Amino acid sequence: MGGDAYALFQRLGREGRGPVAASAKAAGDLKGQGFALGGGLHRVQERWGQQVRSLVDACAHVAQRMDFTGKVHREDELAVHRVVSSIARLETAFEERSERRGGGGGPGGGGPGGHGPARGKPEGGR
């Protein structure tokens, strides 16, 4: 969306002001010939210019915000990925450790998190 806003910003900057110049010339010609329509066209041309400037500014703002937001979210996603990767590595290490000890890490087995006796201790705790 930020790229589209930037493209629109560029296009409006190039093409949006073209009608302003043509309308200003036409308004001047009409006024010069004594037509009241010249003043009305001049007001429309001024309003068009204001609206184009507002749209150009809005597109620039959207493009900048999307760029900023994209960078922030990319950094957030990288941070989340690092945390999840660390958790996955820990989980893998615990599983490997459990397998080396004879499968004692899960429910029903001995060791941490298990429901049976801890490894090396007789049932009854003596």
Distance between the termini: 68 Å
Poorly predicted runs are 113-118
Helix count from the secondary structure assignment: 3
Number of strands: 0
Q: Characterize the biggest β-sheet.
A: none
Derived structural class: mainly alpha
Query: What best-fitting shape do the alpha-carbon axes yield?
Result: rod-shaped
Order of helices and strands: HHH
Fraction of residues in helix: over 70%
Radius of gyration over C-alpha positions, nearest whole angstrom:
35 Å
Q: Note the beta-strand portion.
A: under 5%
Mean pLDDT: 77
Number of domains: 1
Topology, element by element:
Blueprint: H1 2-15, H2 18-32, H3 37-100
Helix pairs in contact: 1-3, 2-3
Structural write-up:
The protein is mainly α and 126 residues long. The protein has one domain (2-100). The protein contains 3 helices and no strands. It has helices at residues 2-15, 18-32, 37-100. The radius of gyration is 35 Å and the shape is rod-shaped. The two termini are 68 Å apart. 6% of the residues are buried.
